[in-house]
Amino acid sequence: MISLEHVSKTYEAGIPALDDISLHIEPGEFVFITGASGSGKSTLIKLMLNELKASKGTITVGGQNLNKMRHRQVPMFRRRIGTIFQNFRLLPDRNVYENVAFAMRVTESRKRDIQRRVPMVLTLVGLASKYKSLPRQLSGGEQQRVAIARAIVNSPKLILADEPTGNLDNKNAWEVMQLLEKINQDGTTVVVVTHNIEIVKAMKKRVITIKRGCLVSDVEGGTSPKHV
Ligand SMILES: Nc1ncnc2c1ncn2[C@@H]1O[C@H](COP(=O)(O)OP(=O)(O)OP(=O)(O)O)[C@@H](O)[C@H]1O
Hints:
GO terms for molecular function: ATP binding; ATP hydrolysis activity; transmembrane transporter activity. Belongs to the ABC transporter superfamily. It comes from Shuttleworthella satelles DSM 14600. The protein has helices spanning 41-48, 74-79, 96-105, 111-124, 140-152, 170-185, 197-203, and strands at 2-9, 18-25, 30-34, 56-61, 64-65, 81-85, 158-162, 189-193, 206-211, 214-219. It contains 7 helices and 10 strands. Strand 7, helix 6 and strand 8 (189-193) form a beta-alpha-beta unit. The protein is α/β, with parallel strands linked by helices. It is globular and about 50 Å long. Bound molecules: adenosine-5'-triphosphate (ATP). Residues 11, 14, 17, 35, 37-43 line the site of adenosine-5'-triphosphate. Adenosine-5'-triphosphate is lined by residues 11, 14, 17, 35, 37-43.
């Protein structure tokens, strides 16, 4: 699903934010990427989304070589990935239903499909009864669940989440993780960047650790080292 071969990223004339990273994520995996602040986690996610170009190396996502992707192919590529961010990024003046439906409208889904699919995903995230609420009328945990509904509504094969629990208390953080685990069990590849070591340990998934731009460990299910 995702493959990085000797990838480095240097922002203008600085030390590399990422230095010679090679990693492979198979379809259907659930992977945490963790590391201290400034270690390069967000840079890694941005490279995978083709928001940034690698300074060196090759990145392949869903069979597409990002180095070779043309500018006009990028929006379509991004729409096929579900993204979740720390600050939810919902449309403030649209209600819950509209926030999720919007993601289907931009992919030119048929009205009938939108009307069928949006209530389905809102039910999955436990927000069917709040479909008319505006984001500001929801708790942080609920807003993040709307963002998750929006991320999965087009049935992506890959979800990239950058600190999805960063603004949430412990209870809501767990709810979000359990939803992501369920989405993964239904077959979607899930990559989660997080600081939250407690959650990482408890989930017992593969954990990739970045330190000062280098991949320092890659551990399967919280046990035996892999790839490194
Ligand atoms: N746009 C930029 N221009 C220059 N340097 C940058 C830029 N973005 C990030 N960096 C630098 O690259 C390094 C990695 O940053 P990155 O945001 O990827 O880290 P992170 O692990 O996601 O941190 P955090 O957990 O605090 O979000 C840091 O040294 C940061 O200062």
